[in-house]
Amino acid sequence: MRVKTPSESRTVMTDLVLPSETNPLNNLFGGELLARMDRAASIAARRHSRRITVTASVNHVAFNRAVPLGSVVTVEAAVSRAFSTSMEIFIDVWIEDRFTGERTKANEAIYTFVAVDDTGKPTEVPPLEPETDLEKERYAAALRRKQLSLVLAGKLKPADATELKALFLKD
User: Fold this and answer.
1) The 3-state secondary structure of 40-84, one letter per residue
2) How many other CB atoms sit within 10 Å of the CB of residue 133?
3) Per residue in 136-150, pLDDT tens?
Protein backbone atom coordinates (compact mmCIF):
# COMPACT_ATOMS: atom_id res chain seq x y z
CA MET A 1 0.00 0.00 0.00
CA ARG A 2 1.23 3.47 -0.88
CA VAL A 3 1.83 5.87 2.02
CA LYS A 4 -0.44 8.90 1.80
CA THR A 5 -0.23 12.44 3.17
CA PRO A 6 -2.97 14.30 5.07
CA SER A 7 -3.37 16.70 2.13
CA GLU A 8 -4.46 13.77 -0.08
CA SER A 9 -7.46 13.17 2.17
CA ARG A 10 -8.25 16.78 3.10
CA THR A 11 -11.85 17.76 2.57
CA VAL A 12 -13.14 21.32 2.68
CA MET A 13 -16.89 21.97 2.72
CA THR A 14 -18.23 25.52 2.74
CA ASP A 15 -21.90 26.39 3.20
CA LEU A 16 -24.24 29.08 4.43
CA VAL A 17 -26.21 28.86 7.70
CA LEU A 18 -29.90 29.07 6.80
CA PRO A 19 -32.89 29.92 9.06
CA SER A 20 -34.20 26.32 9.10
CA GLU A 21 -30.85 25.18 10.58
CA THR A 22 -30.84 27.52 13.58
CA ASN A 23 -32.04 27.42 17.16
CA PRO A 24 -34.16 30.12 18.92
CA LEU A 25 -30.99 32.21 19.39
CA ASN A 26 -30.47 32.21 15.60
CA ASN A 27 -27.32 30.09 15.86
CA LEU A 28 -26.59 26.88 13.97
CA PHE A 29 -27.99 23.82 15.76
CA GLY A 30 -25.20 21.72 17.31
CA GLY A 31 -26.65 18.62 15.68
CA GLU A 32 -26.54 20.28 12.27
CA LEU A 33 -22.88 21.10 12.79
CA LEU A 34 -22.21 17.51 13.92
CA ALA A 35 -23.82 16.24 10.71
CA ARG A 36 -21.69 18.57 8.58
CA MET A 37 -18.55 17.45 10.42
CA ASP A 38 -19.51 13.78 10.00
CA ARG A 39 -19.99 14.22 6.24
CA ALA A 40 -16.65 16.00 5.81
CA ALA A 41 -14.86 13.39 7.95
CA SER A 42 -16.49 10.59 5.98
CA ILE A 43 -15.24 12.03 2.70
CA ALA A 44 -11.71 12.47 4.12
CA ALA A 45 -11.69 8.86 5.37
CA ARG A 46 -12.95 7.55 2.05
CA ARG A 47 -10.38 9.57 0.11
CA HIS A 48 -7.61 8.16 2.28
CA SER A 49 -8.74 4.54 2.27
CA ARG A 50 -10.59 4.37 -1.07
CA ARG A 51 -13.05 2.13 0.78
CA ILE A 52 -16.51 2.38 2.27
CA THR A 53 -16.07 4.04 5.66
CA VAL A 54 -18.27 4.13 8.74
CA THR A 55 -18.21 6.36 11.78
CA ALA A 56 -16.81 4.37 14.70
CA SER A 57 -16.79 7.14 17.29
CA VAL A 58 -16.93 10.83 17.94
CA ASN A 59 -13.96 11.21 20.27
CA HIS A 60 -14.05 14.92 20.91
CA VAL A 61 -16.24 17.89 20.01
CA ALA A 62 -15.69 21.46 21.15
CA PHE A 63 -18.43 24.00 20.53
CA ASN A 64 -16.26 27.01 21.32
CA ARG A 65 -18.13 29.66 19.40
CA ALA A 66 -21.70 30.02 18.16
CA VAL A 67 -22.22 29.99 14.40
CA PRO A 68 -24.79 32.72 13.67
CA LEU A 69 -27.53 32.70 11.05
CA GLY A 70 -26.18 33.84 7.69
CA SER A 71 -22.59 32.84 8.48
CA VAL A 72 -20.40 31.24 5.91
CA VAL A 73 -19.12 28.13 7.68
CA THR A 74 -16.23 25.99 6.44
CA VAL A 75 -15.58 22.49 7.73
CA GLU A 76 -12.06 21.18 7.07
CA ALA A 77 -11.39 17.49 7.72
CA ALA A 78 -8.21 15.47 7.26
CA VAL A 79 -6.92 12.10 8.39
CA SER A 80 -4.57 12.76 11.30
CA ARG A 81 -3.45 9.13 11.67
CA ALA A 82 -4.19 5.79 10.04
CA PHE A 83 -4.06 2.59 12.06
CA SER A 84 -4.66 -0.89 10.63
CA THR A 85 -8.33 -0.48 9.69
CA SER A 86 -9.26 2.77 11.42
CA MET A 87 -8.47 6.40 10.80
CA GLU A 88 -8.59 9.36 13.13
CA ILE A 89 -10.03 12.43 11.42
CA PHE A 90 -9.33 15.90 12.82
CA ILE A 91 -11.93 18.52 11.95
CA ASP A 92 -11.59 22.30 12.13
CA VAL A 93 -14.65 24.53 11.75
CA TRP A 94 -14.21 28.13 10.60
CA ILE A 95 -16.67 30.99 10.31
CA GLU A 96 -16.17 33.89 7.97
CA ASP A 97 -17.02 37.45 8.91
CA ARG A 98 -19.67 38.68 6.48
CA PHE A 99 -18.15 42.12 6.14
CA THR A 100 -14.37 41.61 6.32
CA GLY A 101 -14.02 38.02 5.11
CA GLU A 102 -11.79 37.27 8.10
CA ARG A 103 -11.89 33.60 9.15
CA THR A 104 -12.13 32.61 12.82
CA LYS A 105 -11.85 29.08 14.19
CA ALA A 106 -15.18 28.33 15.83
CA ASN A 107 -15.10 24.62 16.67
CA GLU A 108 -13.15 21.41 16.31
CA ALA A 109 -13.77 17.70 16.55
CA ILE A 110 -12.03 14.35 16.31
CA TYR A 111 -13.84 11.40 14.75
CA THR A 112 -12.75 7.82 14.18
CA PHE A 113 -13.76 6.00 11.01
CA VAL A 114 -13.26 2.38 10.02
CA ALA A 115 -12.82 1.20 6.45
CA VAL A 116 -14.97 -1.79 5.54
CA ASP A 117 -15.42 -4.08 2.56
CA ASP A 118 -18.72 -4.77 0.80
CA THR A 119 -19.80 -7.15 3.57
CA GLY A 120 -19.06 -4.64 6.35
CA LYS A 121 -15.87 -6.38 7.51
CA PRO A 122 -13.03 -4.01 8.54
CA THR A 123 -10.31 -3.79 5.92
CA GLU A 124 -6.76 -2.42 5.87
CA VAL A 125 -6.05 1.24 5.17
CA PRO A 126 -2.88 2.84 3.80
CA PRO A 127 -0.38 4.35 6.25
CA LEU A 128 -0.14 8.11 6.66
CA GLU A 129 2.97 10.29 6.55
CA PRO A 130 2.47 13.72 8.16
CA GLU A 131 4.35 16.64 6.58
CA THR A 132 3.69 19.91 8.42
CA ASP A 133 4.40 20.61 12.09
CA LEU A 134 0.66 20.65 12.84
CA GLU A 135 0.15 17.33 11.02
CA LYS A 136 3.05 15.80 12.96
CA GLU A 137 1.64 17.06 16.26
CA ARG A 138 -1.82 15.66 15.50
CA TYR A 139 -0.30 12.38 14.28
CA ALA A 140 1.61 11.84 17.53
CA ALA A 141 -1.36 12.82 19.70
CA ALA A 142 -3.62 10.39 17.82
CA LEU A 143 -1.70 7.40 19.20
CA ARG A 144 -2.02 8.72 22.75
CA ARG A 145 -5.77 9.22 22.27
CA LYS A 146 -6.13 5.71 20.85
CA GLN A 147 -4.21 4.18 23.74
CA LEU A 148 -6.29 6.09 26.28
CA SER A 149 -9.49 4.91 24.59
CA LEU A 150 -8.27 1.29 24.63
CA VAL A 151 -7.26 1.52 28.30
CA LEU A 152 -10.65 2.97 29.27
CA ALA A 153 -12.42 0.22 27.29
CA GLY A 154 -10.36 -2.46 29.06
CA LYS A 155 -8.74 -3.54 25.79
CA LEU A 156 -5.22 -2.42 26.73
CA LYS A 157 -3.45 -2.73 30.06
CA PRO A 158 -2.28 0.65 31.41
CA ALA A 159 1.25 -0.76 31.68
CA ASP A 160 1.22 -1.40 27.92
CA ALA A 161 0.15 2.15 27.01
CA THR A 162 3.68 3.23 26.17
CA GLU A 163 2.79 6.62 24.66
CA LEU A 164 0.62 7.56 27.64
CA LYS A 165 3.27 6.46 30.15
CA ALA A 166 5.85 8.58 28.34
CA LEU A 167 3.78 11.67 29.11
CA PHE A 168 3.93 11.07 32.84
CA LEU A 169 7.13 9.10 33.46
CA LYS A 170 9.98 11.28 32.33
CA ASP A 171 13.53 10.33 33.20
Assistant:
1) HHHHHHHHHHCCEEEEEEEEEEEECCCCECCCEEEEEEEEEEECC
2) 8
3) 999 999 999 999 888
